Every structure is written in structure tokens, then in C-alpha cells.
Amino acid sequence: MRYRDRNGEPRRESTRTEDWREANRVLRERLQARDGNLLEVIRKGEALTFGEWVDCFLEKYSKPPIRSAKTHEANVRCANHLKAEFVGKKLVEITADAIEQYLGDRIKQRVRIRIKGGGYREKGATKSSTVHQEYRVLRRMLNVAVRKKLLAANPCKGVEFPVVVTGLFRPHYVTWSEQERIEFTARNTCEMPCGSLPKRGCESTRS
Fold first, then answer.
1. How far apart are the C-alpha atoms of 151 and 163, rounded to whole Å?
2. First to last CA, the chain
3. Tell me: the pLDDT tens digits for 88-99?
4. CATH hierarchy code of domain 40-158
5. What does DSSP say about strands 10-12 and 120-125: parallel, antiparallel, or unpaired?
6. Of 122, 124, 126, 151, whose CA–CA distance to 138 is shortest?
7. Which end of the chain, N or C, is less packed with Cβ atoms under 10 Å?
């Protein structure tokens, strides 16, 4: 693809695809980045893989005395899972959809514990608090990348954290006869029984 930068200098880059529509999409993104003065930021992010940035983050922004030893250990544990998921991807290729897919898959996985003699033993499902901690670590990593001008924006801002539903809430609608019984019982304590109990409840006044 060919285009001109903000200084009017001609640029020629590869779209890394043979699909015409995909190539045009890449060109549009380049022009939008140029118009938003983010072209150099995008280029830096394209030259850096996600794994390389994670290693840099752990080395410069996670170790003591910047963070406590326990925080660094937690960051390393989370980083191992994140690197395994996004291995080989460029930093700019980490999208909100990809993060949501990872969180959804991760929360369905079962905990695996290494046993003596080799092999693993599966236990219960991964806790949502564990997955949320990994998400917080990823969000901080990408926030630092934005401040270092390696990303134009943090894709975590568009992520909706998945919630495991254990049961459906089934509302109970109060019948007219049930409401009459509630109001009759409430007269002993309420001076002004409500006419629409399910909406506002019972209000009492003081003399």
C-alpha cells in the first residue's frame, strides 16, 4: 500500500495480506492513524510482540521496589497464562474481542495441579476472582503501553467481563388476594396502608 504521511512524504508498506478487502481495511486504518497523529504509535506497536512487552513490563514495572514481591509473583503467574494465549501476536493485534474470548474460555477451564511422578490432576472450575485478577494485570500492562506510546488506546476499555450464571431469577408476582392479606396484616403497624404494595412498599407516618 502507498500513502503520504503528515509531512507529505510518500510511504510504502506491506498489508501482509492478499485479500483486497483486508488490504483496504489496513490502508484505511493507516490513514486514520495518520490523521490522528498516531502513525508512529501504531508502528511501534506493530514492531513489538505481546510476549516481548510482557517481559519488559515484568522487568521494569513489576519487580520490587516498584511493586511488592507478592504482587510481582502474582503478576508473573497471570503473565504466564496471558502469554500462552496471545503467543506470537503483535501488541496492536490484542483487541477487545480477543480479550473477551480469552476471559470466557478461561473462566470455563478447570484448575490443573501438577502431581508427583508427572502428569496433572484436575480440580474444580477456575474461580472468577482468579480470572478477574488476570484481567486486571492485563489492563495495567496495556495502560503502561499506552503511556509509553506503544498503543493508541487500551482495548480493555471495551471489554465486558463474563459472569457465570448459576441459576435464573424467577420473580414472584403478588396476586390480589395475597396483597389483601399483606395489607390486612400491615394495618397493625402502618397507619396508612399502601394501595400499590409491590411498587412502593408500605409507608408509615409519625404523629
1. 28
2. 81
3. 899 988 999 999
4. 1.10.150.130
5. unpaired
6. 151
7. C
pLDDT digits (tens, 9 = 90+) for 127-184: 888 999 999 999 999 999 989 888 878 999 989 887 655 555 566 777 888 888 888 8
Report how far residue 109's alpha carbon sits from residue 81's, in angstroms, rounded to the nearest whole number.
12
Displacement of CA 33 from its chain's centroid (Å): 24
CA distance readout (Å), 182 to 8, 56, 138, 204: 78, 65, 52, 15
The number of beta carbons lying within 10 Å of the beta carbon of residue 131 is 23
Report the 10 Å Cβ neighbour count for 35.
Answer: 10
How many helices and strands, by DSSP H and E, does the chain display? Answer: 8, 4
Query: Cβ(197)–Cβ(180) under 8 Å?
Result: no
User: In whole angstroms, what separates CA 171 from the centre of its chain?
Assistant: 31
- CB within 8 A of 198, min separation 6: which ones? 173, 174, 179
Q: Dump the DSSP string for 143-185.
A: HHHHHTTS-SS-GGGG--------S-----PPPHHHHHHHHHH
Angle at 89 between CA 58 and CA 157, to 5 degrees: 70
By the 10 Å C-beta count (0-12 exposed, 13-18 middle, 19+ buried), 130 is classed as middle
